[in-house]
Design a protein that fits this description.
- The protein contains 17 helices and 16 strands.
- The protein is of the alpha+beta class and 412 residues long.
- It has one domain: Cytochrome p450, CATH 1.10.630.
- Strands 1-2-10-7-3 form a 5-stranded mixed β-sheet. A 3-stranded antiparallel β-sheet has the order 4-15-11. A two-stranded antiparallel ribbon has the order 5-6.
- Helix 9 runs antiparallel to helix 10 and helix 15 crosses helix 17.
- The radius of gyration is 21 Å and the shape is globular.
Length: 412
């Protein structure tokens, strides 16, 4: 017997697909701190900041060997995300220098150029489907250029990622998509082995890898595994952060006005929106029997750690339901916690800050055209399916026209 039981399907719960954050907030208020659900083969769910943090920071009990619930034995191996200590550390050390803030800083000009190009294409139209037109394109373009993928494959790459993360994809379909992604990665790695360029994959190929056996270069299989992880992480994470953030802002006129009046609050805006709308629910495998919040979790079970719960804790953030850029601290786990904290967090923050700055400079005030038609993707990485936004172009005096209050409509 597994107790306590609270039925919840993190992939296909109807309320989750309508609004994933509202559904997880409902769990926070109504479900036990740790509970068992029979959905998706049966697994545990963390329902507090304390339990999520404990799971993320104790890989000796909660392993990363499976990154899906139910487990998908055919899933491509992803280094270092699917590794536990001590193997994990050596791989992370070889990758970390490429993602430190000083390594990312020179990319800001490229990020600004891509952002300006995408917003310029959309500005004159006065409205857009934001996920498709901007959010799914900016991070992809930046990542592909950084890593070394040919930008001409942009639309194909984005389509593969969207389909791979789709909650409706069967394990067989997801494995097939993984193989298609792997073909692109293998092709790029082979090209860079033969003819290195000034891109990240060429530098990783040339890096010294140090483990207990000594110093060597990463082999082809290891490079493939790292490339697969970076492909998925680089082409989906910032898209989702940007989409959820913009959905909130579309209905928070006071916050829009604050950002327009003082763009200096944008770094705080980035952190606060990440805190309020974290979108990853991390699966872990339970290595051996362990107690969590007074519940004995048997070894061999699986457990889900939803990262939004950390930022929603009343002890960590006062009035966590509110979005405010005036907090003294922004405590959250949007980028994870512990040894698997996201390597790309500095790049993600930069992309988000550049985007918000340029958006408010160019578009000004905006709204969601029809409230409630966006739809959410469930699963371990949640996302908005669509987000229709409209804005008023700048006037001849360079100012923004006010938006009428009745312009926000509800679905139906």
């Amino acid at each position: 017997m597994r107790e306590p039981v609270y039925e919840f399907d993190y992939i296909a719960d109807p309320a989750l697909l309508a609004d994933c954050h509202a559904r997880y907030w409902q769990l926070r208020d109504q479900a036990p701190e740790v509970f068992w659900t029979n959905a998706n083969g049966g697994h545990w769910v963390c329902n507090s900041a304390a339990t999520v943090t404990q799971v993320l920071r104790h890989p000796e009990y909660f392993s990363s060997r499976f990154l899906s619930i139910p487990p998908n034995p055919g899933q491509p191996r992803m280094i270092p995300e699917m590794l536990d200590p001590p193997q994990h550390r050596a791989y992370r050390q070889v990758l970390r220098p490429f993602f430190e803030s000083k390594a990312i800083a020179p990319l800001e000009t490229q990020v600004e150029e891509w952002t300006e190009r995408l917003l310029g294409d959309a500005a004159a139209r006065g409205e857009c489907e934001f996920v498709g037109a901007i959010a799914s394109r900016l991070p992809v373009a930046v990542f592909m250029e950084l890593f070394g993928f040919p930008i001409k494959k942009f639309d194909e790459f984005r389509g593969l990622v969207v389909d791979f993360f789709s909650a409706q994809a069967t394990p067989d379909e997801r494995n097939g998509l993984g193989q298609a992604i792997s073909v692109h990665i293998a092709e790029l790695i082979q090209q860079r082995i033969e003819a290195p360029c000034d891109d990240m994959i060429s530098k990783i190929i040339a890096s010294d890898f140090v483990d207990e056996a000594g110093v060597r270069r990463l082999d082809f299989g290891e490079l493939m595994s790292i490339g697969f992880l970076m492909f998925l992480a680089g082409l989906d994470t910032v898209t989702n952060a940007m989409s959820f953030g913009m959905r909130h802002l579309a209905h928070d006129r006071a916050l829009q006005e604050k950002v327009i009046a003082d763009p200096g609050v944008i770094p705080d805006l980035v952190e606060e929106l990440l805190r309020r709308y974290a979108f990853v629910a991390t699966p872990r495998y339970v290595v051996e029997d362990v107690e969590l919040a007074g519940v004995i979790i048997p070894g061999g079970d699986l457990i889900l750690a939803p990262l939004p719960m950390v930022g929603w804790d009343n002890q960590l953030n006062a009035k966590p339901e509110e979005v405010s850029v005036e907090r003294p601290f922004y405590r959250h786990a949007a980028f994870g916690s512990g040894i698997h904290t996201c390597l790309g967090l500095h790049l993600a923050r930069m992309e988000l800050a550049v985007f918000y700055r340029q958006w408010f400079e160019r578009m000004g005030r905006f709204r969601q055209i029809v409230r409630g038609d966006e739809g959410c993707r469930g699963g371990s990485v949640m996302a908005l399916e669509r987000l229709h936004l409209a804005w008023e172009p700048k006037g001849e005096d360079g100012g923004f026209s006010p938006l009428p209050p009745h312009s926000i409509r509800s679905k139906g």
